[in-house]
Amino acid sequence: QYQLVESGGGLVQSGGSLRLSCAASGFTLDDYAVGWFRQAPGKEREGVSCIDNNGDSSMYEGSVKGRFTISRDAAKNTVYLQMNSLKPEDTAIYYCAAVRLFDVCVIQMTYEYWGQGTQVTVSS
Fold first, then answer.
1. Position 2 confidence tier, pLDDT thresholds 50, 70, 90
2. Number of CB atoms found within 10 A of residue 79's CB
3. What is the mean pLDDT of residues 10-21?
4. Is there a contact between 93 and 114 (Cβ–Cβ < 8 Å)?
5. Per-residue pLDDT averaged across 8-19, rounded?
6. Gap between the Cα atoms of 49 and 57, Å rounded
7. Model pLDDT for residues 83-103, shown as the tens digit of each residue
8. How far, CA to CA in Å, does 121 sit from each of 19, 21, 62?
9. Closest of 75, 93, 64, 69 to residue 23, by C-alpha
10. Which of the 8 DSSP states describes residue 74?
């Protein structure tokens, strides 16, 4: 059974940091690009970042550039999202997703597997 599990969310003050993890089980992420998405209350889900299967290429949505960093650890079959300088507008449920794709990642595309999400709340 293919499964993605997010962790690392929580409550943090504005300006603080969190590191989200996306751990895969039942399959290896070596053949998959992985994306992070978020959905705030009353808003549509939006793409945040993605990383290709090798970790050589990544993309970021404009509002998180310079603050968020995506990375992956093949040995742990896990992708991370380091979030620094957090703002109240970053408050959302964060999801990771995977799509079988090689040497490139695209935020705006159909992803095959999704996690259940982790809540991130940034207080002002």
1. very high
2. 29
3. 98
4. no
5. 98
6. 11
7. 999 999 999 999 999 999 999
8. 13, 16, 20
9. 75
10. G
| 28-58 core/surface letters (b: 16 or more CB in 10 A; e: else) | ebeebbbbbbbeeeeeeeebbbbbbbeeeeb
Specify the residue for token string 């992070």.
36
89: phi then psi, degrees, rounded to nearest 5:
-70, -5
CA dihedral 7, 90, 82, 70 (to 10 degrees): 100
| CA-to-CA dists, residue 89 to 25, 32, 39, 107, 111, angstroms | 31, 29, 11, 20, 25
**DSSP 8-class letter at 45:** -
> Token digits for 33?
């690009």
Q: What is the mean pLDDT of the chain?
A: 97
